[in-house]
Every structure is written in structure tokens, then in C-alpha cells.
Predict the structure.
Amino acid sequence: MNGQATVTILEVWQLSKRFGGVEALSCVEFHVCDREIIGLIGPNGAGKTTLFNIMSGFDVPDEGLVVFNGESIIGLPPHEICNKGITRTFQMTRGFRGLTVLENIVVAALNGTKNLSEAKGRAREIIGAVGLRGFAEKRAGELSTGYQKRLELAKALATQPRLLLLDEVFTGLSQTAIDDTIRILESANQSGTAIVIIEHLMRPILALATRVVALDHGVKVAEGTPQSIALGAQHVGRYP
Amino acid sequence: MDISVLLQATINGLLIGGVYSLVAVGLTLIFGVSRIINFAHGEFLMLGMYLAYYVNAKLGLSPYISVLICIPLFMALGAVVQTVLVNPVMKGPQDIQILLTVALALFLQNAALRFFYPTVRGLSIRSSTYSLSVGNTLISFPRLAASIAAIGMILALYSLLRYTGIGKAIRACSEDREGAFLAGINVGRIFAVAFGIGIACAGIAGALIAPFYPLSPFTGTVFTLTAFVVVVLGGMGDFLGALFGGFLIGVCESLAAIFIPASLKQVVSFGLFVLILLFRPSGLFGRKREWLTV
Amino acid sequence: MSGSPFRLSGPGAIGYVGWGILVLAACLSLVVPFLLSPYVLHLIILVLLYAYLSQCWNIVGGYAGQLSLGHALFFGTGAYTSTLLFLHYSVTPWAGMLIGACCAATLGLAIGFLCFRYGLKGPYFALVTIAFAEMARLVALNVTVLGGASGLQIPLHEGAGAAVFQLSNLSAYYVIYGMTILSVLIVNAMRHNSIGYFLLAIREDELGAEAVGVNPRKYKLVSLVASAFLTALGGTFYAQYYLFLEPNSSLGIGVSITFAVNAIIGGRGTILGPILGSLLLTLSGEFTRSLVTYGGAGVHMMIFGAILMFTCIFLPEGMVPTIAKRLNPKRTC
């Protein structure tokens, strides 16, 4: 799966961010290779979402660099970063409630192509791939939480990202839904998308990630294979 | 430029500024507590003016007595309006909340038009023409009384918010609705009370300016817009900001009227308003919180 | 059939049947005017005018979801520009219309750029639009060249261009009829284009839209400029039809509110909404105005305010989406 990918597509260097007196991120260094799947773990408040916000343009760091495909993306607005190939999802799903599921995904698909019918076609494909077939004409606001997360994922995939940042996309899902999502992500990864997953549940991380980065209080405290991190975390008693 | 002209303008500005502050404090209270931007605020001021006018015309009582009537009357009115009209839309989109208060403003203004007719009236009482002479400047008595009474009301309200139980409940609701609810505070009632106090401020201000300000159904709109400018200037939800902002705007308008035609002085306020919203939305005094800051 | 009233493809809330009726009504409307009395024709012209203006507002207020309560600025700019050009330089209203619209579009560009660049949303954007419109009204009230409080009177003019608006209600009818059709076609084209998707996404969740690659500032600006341009065209029509222009009835806050409310009560973000809203409110307004004698003006606006409050509380989406939901009950999927 990950054997041949050694090209670094994203590099985060000495990233620091302060909110008031609190150091949300402190000299964090981090990189993502082409087609890698990385797990990003840590207790609440560790700075994971802040890192995502900075990587996707929703926030700017106080210090440090973020380089994607050879260019610095600090200061670029989120939509431009999305155009360039990094898409993120939100913990609290941000669907377009008044639009149908299909329309939601078409909006995202238009990130990849200017042609409306092409975008519609791609949206229909994704609806099938993500398992939302039958919901296409349903208003996004009427979906249950589980399906809303699926829609969030579908929209992210529709933007044709090179790097996908998923923020707790597994939280609150049933076991079957988790399995489905793991399969979807594997398939997306094989099509060429690198993924960084923020997650509290270890199962998806163990199943998908080839490398895990652990943050705590804004500092990178560990990095390694999922197995070694899981062992270490259990040992320290951070995770059940 | 004669210094006494500037001085007179400044004093007039400070005097009307006190009233602006009172109106703005009411508006900022409502916003700070329930995040509602009350576009109908000025209409309640207009209603207060009409109350004072008719109480004087029919019962011969001074408008300053009407002020006392205003307090319970407008508080009750505000509570009713909040509970019946505003509450249903509080959980919905903000645009609808705005439209509701705009609709209320339209309704009230045109109700006044229907029942009081468009004639511009003036309320004249014995003290309307009194004035004090201080040096080269003339201080009109009704304006002075209005300003002093307004400041008194503001101070009373400040004490209420700062030191009483209900004041603390109000502040708790504005800072953290959920938390206040969980702490056992009847949030719905607090919203009603806050709304009532807010528009009572407007109504009282109306009664206070009745002796010297021309009265018509359209008087309210001007004050709504001015109150917005003051609230934005002082920081939305910022009590003291509204207090100081009122005086600041009063003086600015008054000074501007020396150099440009009087009816254009509002353009200056609006220009300031736009600039602040664009470049310093947390207000001139910049206390960044969006809830009621006392 | 349709599930969402904002459906971006196909017939939308009103369905194929609805469109059929609309087209039929449109065809009939082409011939019917010859049979009507001048007063009824005047009423229809008014309904169409406000339907047109509210539809223009709908572009930025309904589809992009930005509550503008200052559209009178664009309306008045169009009206005053074309009128002044007509009065002082004998420029035909057709050209004046376009020039006025360009001026309004420029204002829209400036205001939109400032507001959206600095992230003004929701009530703050509404407040700024109110402020700009009020500033314009105050300027018009005080500047003699613009006629001041007594306004501008437009004389009946036999020249080529002006004649169409003024000579008879009939030709005015066809002009506004054409403009209304134009606005419907423009909004419909927008719906079937990617910009329609972007605007509705921005309206529903601006941050979410930005997260999937949509530039909210750019599209909000485009919608505001387009809306300003088209609204100003309506302003010129208004000036030429009434032959009189004064600040309160062309730049006042009541004017802005009317455009917004017609669309909102009818249904923001739908094509039929502004038309239905205008039909209901303009006609009821004229009706109450003619019924009651002295206090008439107050009563009609009281009713207006009451209807609006009712809509906000019980039908916040407006009439068209509510009716559409009734006609197409939710299917279980």
C-alpha cells in the first residue's frame, strides 16, 4: 500500500501557535508522504484540530512553515488551499442543510472541474462509493448524524484532494459504519489520496495508518508505527 | 471660529448625549443578553414620547411623572413582546430575528401613524423655555433635566446589573445560556426581563425628551439608527461603552452641525458607523467579548 | 419529483405543472392588457415592478443569503442618474438606464468589496447596507442639484426613447413585463449554472463552502453587483413611470424593506417567491390604501408589519417552500 511512496507532499516545520497565554502548538514538526495514511492522536486540547486548521488555511501560525507540493501555503485562504489539493472535514459536520445530498456533493465536486455535468456525474459516483445511494434527493438537514458524517466524507472526497485531513470522522459511528468507512478510505488512498486522520478510536488507526503521530499539550510526544504507539500509550495509561 | 460657539455645541452635544446613552444602553442590554438586534428600539422611544404627551394633555401631569409610569408599563410591554413575538424566533436564523424586529418597528410606527396621525407635535410645559446661563453658554433646562435623569437611570441600571441577584442572573444568561439554565436560572424569564428593561430605557428616554423634541410617528427611526451607531461604537453588549459612546456621538453630531447643514450631520454618524463595523467591529474601546459586559 | 425547494436542476419548487401554469399566464398576459381598465393595468404594472425588483434582491438576498436592507441605494441611484441625465443632457432613458445601472453596480462593487473583504455577515452586513442607503437619502435630501426635499419632476417628453415609458400605460406594461421575464430567466440560468450551487452553499454554510473550495467573497460580490445593476434598471423605470422622484420614496428604508420582504414572504431563494410575494403584498397594499380614507397609509403598513411578523414566526421559509413541502410530502428513504 505504502511501499513506494517516499515523496513528501506536505511538510510542517517548527509550527507554533498561541491563543492568549496558551501554547496550542509548540515547535511541531510533521510531514506527509505521497499516498501515506497517518494517524494523529492525542488527548483533547492537544492541538490536533489547531494543526488541521493551520494546514487547511483556517488559521495562521505564529511561527513556522507549512509547505505543500513545494510551496508555502501560510496565509492562503481555505478555498485556495482546497483548490490546491488539501481538503479537511470538521468534527461538527458542516453540511448544506437546505440542499439535497447530491447538491451538497456537486458543490464540492465543482472544486475539481468547471463543468457542471461532469461534477454531477462525479457526485453520483461518490454517492455510490460512499453508500449514500437512495439519499441523493434527501435534504442534508434531514440526515441522521451517521449519514451526515458520510456526507461530510463524500464532499471531501469529491474535491479530489491530494491530501485529506479527517477530523474524527469515525466518532459516533456504528461498527458496520466504521468498517464501511475504513474500506472507503482504503479505496481513496489507493486512488492516490494521502490521508491524515485525527481519531480517538484506535481501531481505524490500526487498520489504516502506517504511521502515527501523537500530540500532547501542543508538543509532538511520539511518532512511529501504530502498534508501537498503541503499546506505548497503553503503557502510560492514556488510552483504554 | 468663536470659541463660545464650539463650547455651546459641545455642551448641547453632551446634554443630548446623555439621552443617546440611555437609549443605547437599553439596546446593548438586549443584544448582550439575547443577541437580538432590536430594530424596533426607537419606536418604543416614540411610544414613550406619545405617552408623555397624552398624559400631559389629558391628565395635566408633567412628563417627568410619565417617566415613572413608563418604567412598569414598558417593562411589562417588553416582557410581553419578547415572550410572544421574539421568543419563537430565537432558535432560528439570525436574519429572521432581524426581520421580526423590523416588522415590529413597521407595525408600531404605522400604528402610531394611524392612531396619532402624522402631525408633528410639541409638548410644552412650564419649564420648556427655562434655561441657565453659564458664562457665554445657554443650558436649556429640559435638556439638562433629561440628561441628568438619563444618567441617573443608567447608574441605577448599572447598580442593578452589578450588585443585585437579578442582575447577576442577567449577566450569567448573557455569558453562558446553557450554563445559566443548568444552574437553575429561568432563562426565558431573564430574556423577558432584559427585553423589558431595554425598551423601558427607550420609553423613559422618550418621555424625557418630550418637552423639547418634536414628536411624530417617525421620530423613532432616527433614534434607532443613532442607538445602533452608539452601540457599535462602544462595543456590542458593552454597557460602559454605550454610556461613553452616547456622549461621544452627541458631541460629534453637535460639532459637525456647525460646519455642515444640520440634516446632514447624521451622514457623519453613519460614516463613522460603517468605518467601525469594517475596521474595528469590537468597538472603539475594544473590549472583545460579545456578551453583556458591565 | 422534487425534494428540496431550492433544487438546482429541474423544475424546482413549483414543478413542471407550476412552470406550465406560469408560461400559460405569461402568454395570456401578453394579450390581456388591451382588455383592462387603466387602473387595473396600473396595478399589474406595480405588481410586476415589485416582482422584478424583489427578484433582483433575491439574487443576493435569497440565493447568496446576504440580507441586504439597503437596496434602495441601487434603486435610487438608477432612478436619479437616468433622470438627471435626461433632464440636463436629454439622454434617452434607455441609455440612462444602463448608465445608472453601471453606477449602481460600481457602488455595489465598492460596498461589497469592503463588507465581504472585512467579513461582515448577517446583521452587521444588514446594518451597513442600511447605513449606506440612509447616507444616500440624506445627501439627496440636502443637495439641490438632486432636487432636495421637493424632488425632481420629469416633464412629458416626446423624444424617441422616452416615449415608450410615458405615452401610455400599455407600453410601460410591456417594458416592465419584459424586465420581469428577464429577471426570471437570469435567476433560472443562475440556478442551472455552477454559480447557483456556489451561492446556495455560501448561504447555507459559508465556512463549509470555503472548506470545499468555494471562494465566498468572490461569489457574494458577484451576486451583489449583479443585483445592484438589475435593481437600478428598475429604478429608471420607476422614475419614468411616475415622472416624479423624491428621496424618501426612492432611497428610504421602507423601499429597501419592501424589496426584501416581498422575496422573503414569498420564499427566499426560489424563483416564484418574489413574484408571489409581490402579488400578495402589493395588491393588499393598494387595496387597503384605497379602502380606508385618512389613516389609510398607516393601516396598510400595519398589516404589512403584521404579515411579516407572522411569516417570521410561523413560515420562516416563506410561502413557496412551505407550499412545495405540502405538495411533495417527505418520502422515507
Notes: The two ends of chain B are 40 Å apart (CA to CA). Chain B has a mean pLDDT of 90.
